[in-house]
Design brief:
159 residues; Arc Repressor Mutant, subunit A; globular; 3-stranded antiparallel beta sheet
């Protein structure tokens, strides 16, 4: 039995997703520019707003980010007074992130621009295609996908 070749799989899925991510991030960053937020920063503020005070590791899991990279991204948000980061009163080795009143106001300020970007995306891609894309991306972000990928990769590596 011969091993499959790279040409059998077409373009690299990871590269295609990363290129699309960079393009969409550029578009959303431009849309949010009047607020001074990048889409990555808005996503963090929105997640903290949804979850309430949250530990950094739980926040990283929710955002599917490396905790170290998240900590780096949190610094300007804390510096600008949009988030507060304090030791967890139950375990001082961990830190808890909370939206400040300024953070809540900045998130609210960005809402209308974010909604406009969402509407423009849906208009450009199509409503049904956008829903299908969201479904596919949710599947790719799910832990079950990671487990299936790792299991398949481990099996292929052994052969």
């Amino acid at each position: 039995m011969t091993k499959p070749t790279s040409s059998e799989y077409g373009p690299c899925s990871c590269t295609a997703l990363r290129k699309a991510n960079r393009r969409i991030s550029q578009i959303y960053d431009a849309a949010l520019a009047p607020t001074g937020l990048k889409i990555t920063q808005r996503a963090i503020l929105a997640q903290v707003g949804r979850s309430g005070p949250v530990g950094i590791s739980a926040l990283a899991q929710a955002l599917v980010m490396d905790a170290g990279a998240l900590a780096h991204t949190l610094k300007p948000l804390e510096r600008d007074g949009l988030l507060s980061i304090a030791p967890d009163p139950e375990d001082r080795r961990h830190r808890i992130t909370s939206l400040t009143s300024l953070g809540r106001a900045k998130l609210a300020e960005s809402d209308a621009l974010w909604i406009q970007a969402q509407a423009a995306f849906e208009s450009a891609v199509g409503k049904a295609e956008t829903r299908a894309l969201h479904k596919a991306l949710a599947r790719l972000s799910d832990r079950n996908f990671l487990a299936a990928f790792e299991a398949h990769f481990a099996t292929d590596a052994k052969t």
